[in-house]
Amino acid sequence: MADAAGRLTKLAEEVLGAPLPVRIRAWDRSESGPPGAPTLVIRHRRALRRMLFKPGELGLARAWVAGDLDIEGDLYAALDLLAGLIWERPGGGGSPRAAVLRALARPEIRAAARELLVLAGAPVPPAPPVEEVRRRRGPLHTLRRDKAAISHHYDVGNDFYALVLGPSMVYSCAYWGTGEGAGAGAFTLEEAQHDKLDLICRKLGLREGQRLLDVGCGWGSMVLHAAREYGVRAVGITLSEEQATFARKRIAEAGLADRIEIRVQDYREIHDEPFDAISSIGMAEHVGRTRYAEYADALYSLLKPGGLLLNHQIARRPVVDEESYRVDEFIDRYVFPDGELAPLGRTVGQLEDAGFEVRDVEAIREHYALTLRRWVANLEEHWDRAARLTSPGRARVWRLYMAACALSFERNRLGVNQVLAVRTPETGDAGQPLRARTWPPVAPGA
Fold first, then answer.
1. How far apart are CA 329 and CA 341, in angstroms?
2. SS3 for 424?
3. Using an 8 Å Cβ cutoff, are 310 and 418 in contact?
4. pLDDT tens readout for residues 20-48
5. How many Å is the Cα radius of gyration of the chain?
6. Structural contact between residues 238 and 305, judged by C-beta atoms closer than 8 angstroms
């Protein structure tokens, strides 16, 4: 089977109706495509079978995770060039899978597809990689199903996350600055995560003796910062047993076990309100559209009158037909099972429907692109150990996921926003500054 790369390039361009923007190297060592471009390496014919049986994003993802497909050269440049072939662009064009199926309706393309079948070899669909979540049953976002989804994403080993996230152990968008001069802003990942946590504490107006709830507390970084720097008493909740174990150890070592409690608990199971403030940082993406009103109502009921909520949440761009929105198959099967993203407007509207007064919205999407690129660099620097701590396939999932997300934030396909909302009392006194963004001063020593 000489020159498999040349034949694949020709077939791809016939289906796409445009030149292939990357170079191809096939299993027979043949190469084709624009010189100097990032190279799509097809290590095994099995990759073609994966893409034939699942055209579009899921087939490509399976080939990538299994190691049948790789990229040589600049990963970000390759993903940027392939974005229109893999992911649906906002505003039109439909899914890549739909485009492939439309192309297959043309007689000349059906002939190309038959040649592709010959190149692919045995007409048997390969088993999905073991890292893939199998098809789930039952209603979305029940307590049991949400706990299983969280476990899939977070219970892959604290040591693995430490390699990727660094010493801060914060798994959400950092808050970057110029790094020029004292107080000018964060330059390292650890500084940027510290500044993000401190910004949230200042937006919430935390003071000594107050009671804070951190929903989706991760490895405990937010509650540790709030208790240590602002003197609050904090409760952190997570559905991940591994996160809870790690967070409790950190809290004990910091001598703050008398001020911080970590629970393995769902937000729907909390009954020891009221709280003075609630932080929800990168957690609401797991809630889902069918439960978001319940989530907003629950947080509202857990706050005392005058209490503040800081909701830090990824947003997607709106689509013309919101009912047609579906989560990316790669994300759903390999990264965040049952996770859903909503446009910012819907999130603000549902918080208002629950009774909150929204006081401030800060868009920080560029900050997430910077954060993700640092996480990818950490993973690549410690690649061999990361693969040993989880699996080569899991490490490949994370590299692709984080690099693709960095580009999505840079290209405005995704955003991230901090929404500050108040359970304003009947008197109308929200207790907020007259000018937005005039947060209280930085805590002493912060």
1. 13
2. coil
3. yes
4. 999 999 999 999 999 999 999 999 999 99
5. 24
6. no
